[in-house]
Amino acid sequence: MDKTHRMRLAKDAMDRDWADPALDLDAVAAHAGYSRYHFIRAFREAYGETPGQYLTHRRIERAEEMLRGADLTVTEICHLVGFSSLGTFSARFKARTGLSPSQYRTEHVGRGAALIPGCYAMLWAGGFPTARTATSKKRCEPAPAYGDDEGPASSDRRAEP
């Protein structure tokens, strides 16, 4: 496997798992088959930035999308995009965009469609890791949609034992 292919495997892993706060340098370097220190040098040579900088940029891009389109708090977005500290998220966001997350939302919301309700955005994003594991057992199977009845016996569900 050549160096370019190895770097693409690692970059693909970061693009796929960008929201995972447990994504660490050792795991990404393992995708490329390098030690962590050699991987940092090789990644910077190939892409012009360190793996940490690349991952931060991906997370900030996703946060920008959520701030423009979802009715979630800045703290919720911070955790959904993989940051564990609101202070670090806000500082990195401001360094990248020139605005705090709240200022960014104020400037960019209201220029198009209505915001997606936070509950739908959280459902789409998978929610917080602790909430997902706690609620996954409580979900019931969806009822058939209108017109998807199996036959005449299923039209009156109250009659079933």
From TrEMBL:
<dbReference type="Pfam" id="PF12833">
    <property type="entry name" value="HTH_18"/>
</dbReference>
<dbReference type="InterPro" id="IPR018060">
    <property type="entry name" value="HTH_AraC"/>
</dbReference>
<dbReference type="GO" id="GO:0003700">
    <property type="term" value="F:DNA-binding transcription factor activity"/>
</dbReference>
<feature type="region of interest" description="Disordered">
    <location>
        <begin position="136"/>
        <end position="161"/>
    </location>
</feature>
<protein>
    <submittedName>
        <fullName>AraC family transcriptional regulator</fullName>
    </submittedName>
</protein>
<keyword id="KW-0238">DNA-binding</keyword>
<dbReference type="GO" id="GO:0043565">
    <property type="term" value="F:sequence-specific DNA binding"/>
</dbReference>
<keyword id="KW-0804">Transcription</keyword>
<keyword id="KW-0805">Transcription regulation</keyword>
<dbReference type="InterPro" id="IPR020449">
    <property type="entry name" value="Tscrpt_reg_AraC-type_HTH"/>
</dbReference>
<feature type="domain" description="HTH araC/xylS-type">
    <location>
        <begin position="8"/>
        <end position="107"/>
    </location>
</feature>
<dbReference type="InterPro" id="IPR009057">
    <property type="entry name" value="Homeodomain-like_sf"/>
</dbReference>
<dbReference type="InterPro" id="IPR018062">
    <property type="entry name" value="HTH_AraC-typ_CS"/>
</dbReference>
<dbReference type="InterPro" id="IPR050204">
    <property type="entry name" value="AraC_XylS_family_regulators"/>
</dbReference>
